[in-house]
Amino acid sequence: MAITINNKKCDGCGKCIKSCPFSAIEMKAGYPEINEACRVCGICIRDCEQGAVVLIDEKRESADKSAWSGILVFGEMNGDKLHPVVRELIGKALELADSGRQDSASRTARSVSDEAAPTNEELKLGTQARSVSDEAAPTVSGGVSTVLVGSGIESAAQELLGFGVDKVYMYDDEAFRCFKADSFAAVLADAINHVRPAVVLVGATSIGRSLAPRVSTKLRTGLTADCTALELTEEGDLVQIRPAFGGNIMAKIITPNSRPQFATVRYKVMDEAPNVKPHGDILAMNVTDAMLKSGIEHVSVESKPPSENISEADVLVVGGKGLKAKEDLEIIKALAEKLNGQYAVTRPLVEAGWAPQNRQIGLSGRTVKPKLLITFGVSGAVQFTAAMRDSECIFAVNRDAGAPIMDIAHYGLVGDLYEIIPGLLET
Q1: Overall domain count for the chain
Q2: pLDDT grade for 29, boundaries at 50, 70 and 90
Q3: 50 within a domain of the structure (yes/no)
Q4: Are both 34 and 149 inside the same structural domain?
Q5: Domain for residue 304, yes or no?
Q6: Do residues 29 and 69 both lie within one domain?
Q7: Among residues 265, 292, 319, which one ends one of the domains?
Q8: Which of 408, 310, 294, 416 is nearest to 367 (CA)?
């Protein structure tokens, strides 16, 4: 559904412009025009006395997949440094590009006769050998690039090249020193229109969760939020995997008829891109007045007090519903301190008011990937294990040898946490 304006009925009064709560109507050549900010709320239809503003059932054609190629990663800045999620997104993008390259090579090999074997150059991602059929399935060709928005970001752009990206599209302006959702959305939309990537990846951070929906709406394409896994089909469609129904199922979502394919990805669920010898280019992009225009004004910026983040911890000691009382959480904290780590909990303890939500591991909490994770009294529900199963070493303590946590733990100890933890504290 979409809203349009019939200029034959419109008298140019501008009442619809004033009534729109999203500033989605602009006056152009004497007539109002709907822009991409429209949320189809219908207020303008109600307020138009001439009946010139109408709702239409818009039929969209499938995107021309051949016009979209490659993967674009949004390079989120955390202050004057890259947010760690960016390196994870690039790592996954490179992996997807490699899978696309391998699929393309495999299809080419099957389609080309022995007498006309393709060269290695012809098997590159996004190219086809001379004898390949026109019906060969497309891949996510075009390599991996990054868009970087901020002020004084040259060093961050150089750092991105060291992760193996082919191009860094840099929008550098003092106005971008602080995040403004509307300005950054205009910039990212400009980069997408310039690069025309098949896939766009954004971190599922507070900034990413604000930015991605705005841009996907501008471009009128789908968005899958909070993905925990990504795959690529032979047809070049991105399989976006995320928990649904409270984590009871894992949904696989594809948008085969739209480009670009847009996804936000959780932090600490993908492997980081390795350091490589830089081979790409940094492209300084033109910053226009439209990008700088913003309805947001920064009055002041104050740093948050430093706090522990369980997603960054190398060692985590986790208490579950096997704890009998809130006070018993103190022994979990004591062991975490002894191991120079942090404590965490499962969802039932947060719901009981025993611990704050930022200490929760799970699909509705934080995703973690520490070097060592020790659980006490944790049963191992899928909502919990999906957010910690990639930890380097998992040690589980539970009185039930058949608890689900034992199936994913590298080491399991059947026993009472009230007997085991005191002994560990004494050593």
Answers
A1: 3
A2: confident
A3: yes
A4: no
A5: no
A6: no
A7: 292
A8: 310
> Average pLDDT of the chain?
87
pLDDT class of 28 with cuts at 50, 70, 90:
confident
Is there a single domain that holds both residue 359 and residue 398? yes
User: 307 versus 271: which is more confidently predicted?
Assistant: 271
pLDDT of 141: 62
Which CATH number does the domain housing residue 199 bear?
Answer: 3.40.50.620
Range of the structural domain that residue 336 is part of? 310-426
* Domain contains 72: yes
Residues 97 and 232 in one domain: yes
The pLDDT of residue 60: 61
Percent of the chain with pLDDT over 70: 88
- Does 351 lie in the same domain as 257? no
**Domain for residue 269, yes or no?**
yes
CB-based contacts of 251: which residues, under 8 Å, 6+ apart? 241, 242, 243, 244
- pLDDT by residue (tens digit) across 200-233? 999 999 999 999 999 998 898 989 999 999 999 9
Per-residue three-class SS string for the chain: CEEEECCCCCCCCCHHHHHCCCCCEEEECCEEEECCCCCCCCHHHHHCCCCCEEEECCCCCCCCHHHCCCEEEEECEECCEECHHHHHHHHHHHHHHHHHHHHHHHHHHHHCCHHHCCCCHHHCCCCCCCCCCCCCCCCCCCCEEEEEEECCCHHHHHHHHCCCCCEEEEEECHHHCCCCHHHHHHHHHHHHHHHCCCEEEEECCHHHHHHHHHHHHHHCCCEEEEECEEEECCCCCEEEEEEECCCCEEEEECCCCCCCEEEEECCCCCCCCCCCCCCCEEEECCCCHHHHCCCCCCCCCCCCCCCCCHHHCCEEEEECCCCCCHHHHHHHHHHHHHCCCEEEECHHHHHCCCCCHHHEECCCCECCCCCEEEEECCCCCHHHHCCCCCCCCEEEEECCCCCCHHHHCCEEEECCHHHHHHHHHHC
Per residue in 366-423, pLDDT tens? 999 999 999 999 999 888 998 898 899 999 999 999 999 999 999 999 999 999 999 9
Same domain, 160 and 262: yes
